[in-house]
Each structure stands twice: as C-alpha cells, then as structure tokens.
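Re: your question about NADP-dependent oxidoreductase

S., sorry for the slow reply, the queue was backed up all week. Below is exactly what I fed in.
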Amino acid sequence: MRAAAFAEPGGPEALKVMELPAPQAGPGQVRVRVRAAGVQPFDAAVRAGWLPPYLPDLPYPRVPGNEFAGVVDQVGPGVTGVAAGDEVLGFSRLFAYAECVVVPATDVAPKPAGVPWEVAGGLTAAVQTAELAIDGIGLADGETLLVHGAAGAVGTAAVQIARRRGATVIGTAREANHDHLRSLGAVPVVYGEGLADRVRALATGGVDAALDGAGGHALDVSLELVADRRRIVTLVEHGKAAQLGVRVVQGERTAERLGRYAALYAQGEFVFPVRRAYPLEDAAGAHREIETGHGRGKVVITI
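Result:
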C-alpha cells in the first residue's frame, strides 16, 4: 500500500509517499481502505519525533494520522456488526495517512450518506476533543465559556457543543472569521493586546470557564478571567498545565460520540467546515498549513 511516512524525524519535507506492507485485520479488528484522513498538530509533533507515552518506541518508517474515513475491506475473526463494504469513520493511534489502516471494530462508526468523505475523515479529533473538554469543565446551562482559537476545527465544534448545552460562548478569532463565529451562535472577539478587557466588556456576568486552543497569551488571559483554574482546559500548553492547576483533555474517544456528531452533521444540525484537502502526495503541504496555527476549519488528506 501507499502511505505518507517519514524515515527519520524532521520538518514537513520528511513526509514522503512510500510503499509499505499492507496491514491485515486480526481478531476483533477491521481493515479500512482510507478515503480521507484528518491532519492535526498532534501529527506534526509525531513527525518531528515525539511519541505519546501510551505508544511504544515504534520503528521507522512511521506513518502519522489518527482519524480517518473509508470503506471496510477486511473483517477479522469475531467481529460482528461491521461488514466488508461498509462506509465508516473512525480513529486510530497512528497509521491513518495510508491506503489501509487496521483498527479494533469498536473504533469505527457508520458514515451517514450525507457526510462527505473529507468531513468524515477529519471529524473525530474535533468532536471528541471538544466534548471531552467541555465535559471535564462541567459546563452548564446559563454559564459563559471563553474559547480561544474558536474558528479552528476543535473551536468550531466546541462553540456548537457549548451552545447546545445552553451556554453563552465568547470566541477569539481573526476578524475575517467573526461572521463564521456569529453563524455558530458565538460572540466573536479579536485576539491580541487588550483581549482581557474586551472579554470583560462582553461578559458582564464574568467568565465561568475557558477552552484554550491557542496557548501563550490566550492561556494568560484565561487565568486572569476565570476564578476556578480547574475550569480552564488547555489543548496546547500541556507542559504548564499541572504547575498552573489547569486541565488537559482527559477521557477516551468513543465510536458512539463520533457517530452521534456524524448523524447531526447529516441532519444539518452540526457545522464542520473543511479548510483544504491535500492529496496524499502533498502530505507535507498539509503539515505546513497546520503548523501556521491559523485558519478556519479542518485540514485533511485525501487518498
């Protein structure tokens, strides 16, 4: 099979299309012919040489990617409820930038017909991260949530999830993305110097919780505005979280959660813009874009 992989850590240019052995589905597993795979800052960190602590020291070449959509083409022993030919979306630990990926059958959900491949391939990280974060801070009806990086994939999902729970959402973004945030039900605010004062002017009753998708100054502003640090979750400043007393996202991804939001998208009740789709041959370009830290919606790779 073809895969976008790297033989040693490096910049985006380290990603090359390689011919690698196709994985085979074992007991309880399915193999998926990938049509689209989401791209995340997590993937760029893996490409640069980092591995999360729950993964072994994998050999090279390594294949990034932990979210995908495609067609099941192989079903291992003991699998029920999933069959060859099923269109699915799912998640993995790595290996999704490839023509084939093998995962436990419990880690895929049916892809509704109304969900495009590019959306399906990039949905899981955004909705799983956003809902786990909001669950962690215990956001309730009538509260105010500050979302930094609100126009990105996770931010867009978080705004909608919070609004569905009855919260007021203030979202930071470049002015070009303010109409997008308004369409989701958020109150937009431009980031940069004076942000804390601008948010105070909008949140006359105070800010109850914050989701930091930007780090740096955004996290400083969250600490200034939110009284209970346990109600701040950062997606980027993992090294500072324990010292500052703020949260990182915890909890398990589930196929149920993924399937629920895919169904909402198909019903027209959930918005998930795709910023740009890159072919597998230009996975490096996808990484260059994701590393800018800016942009509305999701970057995906198509295969």
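The chain has a mean pLDDT of 96. The radius of gyration is 19 Å.

Happy to talk it through on Thursday.
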